Amino acid sequence: MSVVPALGAQPALLPDWLDAEHLISSFGSYALIGIVLVVFVETGLLFPLLPGDSLLFTAGALVAQDALDFPLWLLCVLLFAAAFLGDQVAYFIGHKAGPRLFRRPDSRVFKQQYIDQTYAYFDKYGGRTVILARFVPIVRTYAPVAAGVGGMRYRTFVSYNVIGALVWGVGVTVLGYLLGTISFVRDNIEALAVLIVLVSVVPVAIELWRGRRAARRADGGRDERYDEPAERAAVERKAFEQ
């Protein structure tokens, strides 16, 4: 397997761990396995800082350019499976760990603001968040966990998860494949990957800003006798069970 550099000797626009093309190239002959594992880890093992969207798009584009030596159908089948199983694992982590998981102290990867942001999406979109969150970095990692914590019915979650894995894992990959033969895309694939990351991050930034503004407004009237995370989980559980 060989990966054809899209930008030649131009300087990288993203750090190596976010540069989808560099990441795929680093996998060498194990590119297919590496791509699938990255998607599974991001969606299932609470590690949000990976290039999900741009990885899918770039993988599809490189297959179209014959820079990867496996067929599109195989890539799509395995990415669908990885995206679906990843969310299943995350759901059961949330279901088994419960609210304790959401009270963990901040670490390099886990931040309470990620959880707050995910709850904001559930408040706004309900169960559809499982689908919509696929296209939002960080939120896609914690949405299935929040669904498990909140007690969303498993059958309902699986239905949303199948649709989400299909439109994201397969849809974005096929989009990259269809556009990958266009000369502009082929010559600027890394720049386009940066654009995908930036566009994906915009909703995250907006929700964080709204959340912080709402938190500042509510600070004065907060009653510390109540355990906010537990109360919030109870509210979400009631909504999911309906």
Automatic annotation (TrEMBL):
The record gives the membrane topology as:
Multi-pass membrane protein
Per the record, the domain of life is: Bacteria
UniProt domain VTT: residue ranges:
50-177
Q: Does the keyword Membrane apply?
A: yes
Q: Membrane-spanning regions, if any?
A: 30-50, 70-94, 162-185, 191-209
**Localisation:** Cell membrane
Gene Ontology CC terms, in alphabetical order? plasma membrane
Q: Which Pfam families match?
A: VTT_dom
Please provide the record's keywords in A-Z order: Cell membrane, Membrane, Transmembrane, Transmembrane helix
Keyword DNA-binding attached = no
Q: According to the UniProt record, where is the region Disordered?
A: 218-242
Under PANTHER family, the record lists: INNER MEMBRANE PROTEIN DEDA-RELATED, TRANSMEMBRANE PROTEIN
Q: What family does the Swiss-Prot or TrEMBL record give for this protein?
A: Belongs to the DedA family.
Task: Report what the protein is called.
Answer: Membrane protein
